[in-house]
C-alpha cells in the first residue's frame, strides 16, 4: 500500500507531465517557427552567393568576413567595414532617440491616465489604441501629409503670414523622429500604464507629507516603482525602432540607409544573400546583448521598493 | 412542368454551365505597379473569357527572386531587357516563340530581333522608354539635357533634387557622366564614378521612387526619372520638362514573357499575341504613357502622346542613347559596394 507521501509524489509527477503535455503544441510551434527560420538564416550566411541572387551550396565565410572587413575595390586592401558601422550607428542612434522621446511623451500620458477616476481610464486607454487600427504605412503617409512642403503645417503657416517660404521638414532627421515617436508611442504608454495602475498613490501622498518636493517624489517614489513598465516599454519601442524600415524611407527620403535597408539591399539589387544573412544575425546578436545588459542594469534595485 | 419546358430548362442549365466553364480560364499576371491598363485587361477578359489577376512587384530583383523560388502561381511577367538574358539562362521562361505568332508582323522592325532575346523566341514588347531627368523649369531656366542636374547640381536646384534609387540606372548614368562605357569594370573609371556620386549626394533631398506625386506637390524640383513618369508629371504641371542627358542616357524595354511553370500556358500565349495588336498596345500606352514598339499603334494613341517629346525621342538626342546590357555578376558586385558607400 502506498503511503500518503508516495501518492502525493505520484500526483505531482502526473501534474508535471500534464503541464509539459499541454504546453507541448505551443512549444513545438515556437521552436519550429522561431528557430527553424533562424537556422536557415544561419546556414545561408555560410554559403556562397549565387550569381543572380540565392545561394550556391558551397561553404564560405566570405559573408561573415565582409560584415566586419571590406576589401577596397580600388587598391584591394582589407580594412574595417566603416560603411556598415556608420549605417548601424545611425539605426542605433535613431532607435535610442525614439525610445527616449517616447518615454518623455509617454510617461506623463500614462501618469495622466492612471490618475483618472477608474471608470474613465478605459476610455483614455481606448483612445491610445485607436492608431493601431490603421496600418503602419498609412499612418506614416499621414505624417508625410502633415509635414511636407505643401502639407498642413506649412500651408497653415503661410496662409497666416507667419512664414513666406515653406519650412523643410520632410526628409530630415526631425521627420523620421516625428514619425517614429508617433508610431511607437502606444507601445510605450501601455506597459507604463500597466505598472502605474498598480502604483499605490498613498505612498505619493506620504512622500509629500514628509516634505518631499515634486521632483523628489517622482525620482524616489514613482519612477522606481514603475521601473518594470519603463523597461518593458523601452524594449517594445527599441526593438522595432532599430529595425525600422518604412518610416525612415518614407519620411527620411531613403538617402541614408538604415540597417534594415542595408540588409534588404543584399537580398535585392546587391545579390549577396550570405552577407544579408550574416548582417541579420549580427544585428540580432547585438540587440540581444544590449537588452540583456540593459535589463540587468535597470532591474537590479527593484526589490528594495514596492 | 411539361417535358418540353423541362428539356429547355436542362438545356439552359447546360449552356450556363458550359459558358461558366470557359469563363473559368485564368491568367495571372505579375507586373510592375501602376503599369497595366484596366480597360485593356477588360477587353482581353471579354475577348477570351479569361479572368485576369494582376499582382505587383517593385523591382526586377524582387520579380526574379520570387519567380526563382517557385510556387508563385504566375503565368506572365514583364522583366526589363537587362534581366531577360538572366531569366532565359536560369531556365525560368517558356519558349513560346512569339516570332511565329499571328500578330508578330506588327512588331517594329528594330524590335524584332533584340540582343536580349535573339529572334524573339521568348518575349513580346510591353513598354519602351528612356531614363533621363525631369526638371521643374519654373525653378531652373538652364539647360536640362545633362546629368549635371543630378551630379553637378546647379545652385537653384541644390537640396531639391531627387534620385530614383535604381542602382543599375544610377550607375549607368554616373559612368556615362565621367565618360566611361556601360557595365565597365575599369577601376579608374569606377573611382571617378564613386567620387562624383559621393560629392553629388549632399545636394540631393531624397532617393525615392514616388516621383509623380512628389514632383507634382513640389517636394522635388528635379529628379532622375523614367520618361513616361515625367510625361505624366508634365500633363499635371506644364512647367515640368524631360531632359535627355548629352553625356549618354539609356533606352530600356520591358517585355511580356511566359513563365516555365505557368499553369495557364494557352492564355498566356493568347496574351502575348494580344499585346502585339496595335490597338491593344495603344490602349496600354494611353495608360502607362510609354511607347510600345508595335507599329501602327500610333494612330490609336491619345494625341498628347504621339507628339510628346518624352515619348518621341527628338532626332538630335537619339545618338546619345544606348540600350542597357546585362552587366556581369562580378561587375554588379563592384557596383553594389559603391552603392553601399554612397548610401552609408
Describe this structure in words.
With 306 residues, chain A is mainly alpha-helical. Chain A contains 13 helices and four strands. Chain A has a single domain, classed as MetI-like (MetI-like fold). A two-stranded antiparallel sheet of chain A has the order 1-2. In chain A, helix 12 runs antiparallel to helix 13 (273-299). Chain B is α/β, with parallel strands linked by helices. Chain B has helices at 3-23, 38-48, 60-69, 84-89, 148-151, 167-177, 187-200, 211-217, 227-236, 265-275, 278-288, 303-306, 315-318, 329-343, and strands at 25-32, 50-57, 76-77, 124-136, 161-162, 204-206, 222-226, 240-243, 249-258, 321-323. In chain B, strands 1, 2, 3, 4, 5, 6, 7, 8, 9 and 10 form a ten-stranded mixed β-sheet that branches. In chain B, helix 7 runs parallel beside helix 14 (329-343). The longest helix of chain B is centred in the first third of the chain and has 21 residues, at 3-23. Chain B starts with a helix and ends with a helix. The chains are: A mainly alpha (306), B alpha/beta (344). Chain A binds chain B through residues 51-54, 70, 73-74, 82-84, 86-87, 148-150, 168, 170-171, 249, 253-257, 261-262, 265, 267-272, and chain B through 59, 61-62, 64-65, 68, 86, 90, 159, 162, 165, 167-168, 187, 190-191, 201, 204-208, 217-219, 329, 332-334, 336-341, 343-344.
Map the helices and strands:
The complex is a heterodimer of chains A (306) and B (344).
Chain A: H1 4-44, E1 48-49, E2 55-56, H2 62-68, E3 69-71, E4 78-80, H3 82-114, H4 118-129, H5 136-147, H6 152-159, H7 173-197, H8 201-209, H9 214-225, H10 227-242, H11 246-252, H12 259-267, H13 273-299
Antiparallel strand pairs in A: 1-2, 3-4
Helix pairs in contact in A: 1-13, 2-13, 3-7, 3-10, 5-7, 5-11, 7-10, 7-11, 8-9, 10-13, 12-13
Chain B: H1 3-23, E1 25-32, H2 38-48, E2 50-57, H3 60-69, E3 76-77, H4 84-89, E4 124-136, H5 148-151, E5 161-162, H6 167-177, H7 187-200, E6 204-206, H8 211-217, E7 222-226, H9 227-236, E8 240-243, E9 249-258, H10 265-275, H11 278-288, H12 303-306, H13 315-318, E10 321-323, H14 329-343
Parallel strand pairs in B: 1-2, 1-3, 5-6, 5-7, 9-10
Antiparallel strand pairs in B: 3-9, 4-7, 4-8, 4-9
Helix pairs in contact in B: 6-7, 7-14, 8-9
